[in-house]
Write a structure and sequence with these properties.
Length: 464
Amino acid sequence: MSFFVYDLIFLIVFCSVLVLFLLKRRKKLQREGILILYRTKLGIKIINYIGNRYRKFLNAIGYLVIFVGYALMISMLALLFQLVYLFWKFPEFIRAVKIPPIMPLIPYIPEIFKVDFLPPFYFTYWIIVLVIAAVSHEFCHGIFARAKKVKIKSTGFAFLGPFTGAFVEPDENKVKKLGIKSQLSFLSAGTFANLTVALLFFIVMWLFFASAFTASGVVFNTYTFSVINRTDIQPSGETLFINFNDGLNLTKVSVGEETYYVENKDLESKQDYVIAYEDTPALRAGLSGVITEIDGERINNNLELKQVLEKKSPGDEVIIKTLFNDSVREYKLALTERNDNKSQAYLGIALIRSDGLSILSRIRSRLLFFKDPNTYYKPKVADEFFIFIYNLLWWIVLVNFSVGLVNMLPVGIFDGGRVFFLTILGLTKSEKAARWAYKFSTYLLISIFLLLTLLWFVRIGWFG
């Protein structure tokens, strides 16, 4: 039985227990706006202890906390306006953004939207990551409030339909009486906690990966290709299907004296230029999967692949083994010659980095700088368990970093909204101007997100 089945069982059991818990304590539930709150005193003693014991230290790092908050706010706004620019300038870019711009964090999101550059996001991951992100965020709000001698009235859980969050409730009247600098440090503390958690778990993930995984193959994501003018193409009528990625339906074409294979959908499109796959041994053989062996010689990375191919000559027949969906495939093919060097053997695969395809993939590539994207890494022992732990660490890092970014948007529902309000108030000394700027920023950014989301759904055809 796969882990996915166990995960679904855990999801059902968790939801059932949660419903029973809320029904049993329904008299203690309170509605505030669209949220259902369950207030407790859980953790208040610890918050008070840390806030009082380390008051001097917490107050001393207040400016650092504020700086980090502003840095994340500027970074998030830069990412947003970069996304707006790309949507406006390059409409085709919308398809590369695999997830809608407005999307709550839910289990199985990579599977739902077929995001191949993210690991599975099981419900088990979701609940662990949510607890770490929410508790650290709210806990840090609490201790910074207590360091300012603000009473913590309650802690608890907030529910919005099936979505759950945590909260720490300080005495708001005392918070409002604090100076602007003190309020800014209190408001930015949650984001600072998420960034700190992301950094700590990133170090753990890095060390875990270095000790538990080893390079074990070469990942290629396409065959060699050229970009050619569509008007120069002369179709031959001969077709070829290759079970590679999502499947390639190709038609053999000629451009002058050269032979290529072009996807049928590109031939039918109105684009001026199309991608044409070169007529290579890898393409004709339908080579797919992770290359692990050539003629009995182990291939662990791209350098070793190059070294093995340099020993071969054009016309040599080779046996290549690949790992495809946990099964081993074997291909027998004859190498050809390189166009730029007739004496060198040529296989015809391409290793393309995906850094620029979407903002998410770019963030991923920056975070995983210690991994070669074209190398397949295998756990040294306990395959499934090590992969489970690594992916969990990865989601903890990504979600905490993302929460830190999004939470600092100058929008009313986030801490960044109140930070923005206090900033304008401090600059203008006018509460009226601050409220106007606060409302304008909130409505503007929400409108941008809604528009981008609508464009995304229209572009990918969800509305026909």
